[in-house]
Design a protein that fits this description.
With 134 residues, the chain is α/β, with parallel strands linked by helices. It has one domain: Beta Barrel (OB fold (Dihydrolipoamide Acetyltransferase, E2P)), CATH 2.40.50. It is 27% helix and 36% strand. Strands 2-3-4-6-5 form a 5-stranded mixed barrel. The protein starts with 6 loop residues before the first strand and ends with a helix.
């Protein structure tokens, strides 16, 4: 069976601790650190006057040519690892998307969430109506 499709989470949501081990996620941020000897990188994003850091396990995407300071999108699974504060993402895809409009990306993610939420409520309403007619 295939894993569930990865949902976009903002970097500040990844660090919130609401995600579970092995959950598929997508997120983004500026590459601020890469340690090839540890197969570890850090993405950073500014939100509400705070910097949010997400630790990335890069062992499945190596070798890659990191561009420190560039924007990246990561697709992977949550890892709850000891020795790392909180959790990290085991990257399956780590793409440089430098030049992308981050404000527009955030708006699109919010619009997508609204669409899925509305679609889910329509599905639930239809199920209730179907149950009432039977």
């Amino acid at each position: 069976m295939l894993p569930a499709a990865a949902v976009y989470y903002f970097p500040w949501e990844v660090k919130s601790g609401a995600l579970q081990d092995r959950q598929s996620v997508r997120t983004f941020g500026r590459l601020t650190r890469y340690e090839p000897e540890k197969s570890q990188a850090s993405l950073t994003t500014q939100h509400a006057s705070k910097e949010h850091h997400v630790v990335i396990n890069t062992s499945f995407v190596e070798p890659f040519n990191p561009i420190i300071g560039a924007q990246y999108i990561v697709l992977g699974e949550i890892e709850i690892a000891e020795g790392v504060e909180g959790l990290r993402i085991c990257a399956r895809v780590l793409n440089c998307v430098d030049g992308v409009n981050i404000a527009l990306l955030q708006k699109v993610i919010n619009e997508q969430r609204s669409f899925f939420k509305e679609r889910q409520s329509h599905v639930e309403d239809a199920a209730v109506q179907h149950a009432d007619t039977n």
